Amino acid sequence: MSSDYAMLIGVFATFVTSGVAHEVVFFYITRAMPTGEVALFFLLHGVCTVAEVAAKRTAFVRRWPVRPVVSWMFTIAFVNVTAGWLFFPQLIRNNLGERCSNEISLLIDFFRSKLFYFPQ
After folding, report:
1. What angle do CA 109, 110, 115 make, to 5 degrees?
2. Tens-place pLDDT, residues 58-87
3. How far is CA 56 from the centre of its chain?
């Protein structure tokens, strides 16, 4: 196997591993059964990253290179669209924002009671 293929397989395996790890983290945060959306998010990004790296090594892209700012804008747009589609819905469905704000409120109350407690 050439080092190019080994590198592409390694990049894809990293994204798959990250997807599984994020599913586990989301399970512990939300206490809801994993839906696979987060793993699909990372799987999709792994496929697209491997395709981009492979395409940039072809003669076609070397002949007509894409400007870095254009590539950067497409990457940011792609990450934002797929995050809104696959990454954040699981957190929104499980009311994580409300739960986090409640936890922060309890933490603030705890420190307020400890810092401003003056025994008489």
Report:
1. 100
2. 766 677 777 889 889 999 999 999 999 999
3. 24
Task: Tally helices (H) and strands (E) across the chain.
Answer: 6, 0
Residue 40 has pLDDT above 90, yes or no: yes
**What would the two tokens of residue 23 be?**
């599913």
Do 30 and 96 meet the contact criterion of CB atoms below 8 Å apart?
yes
Instruction: Please state at what angle helix 68-82 crosses helix 37-56, rounded to 10 degrees.
Output: 160
For the stretch 79-89, pLDDT in tens is 999 999 999 99
- Among 34, 25, 7, 49, residue whose Cα is nearest residue 90: 34
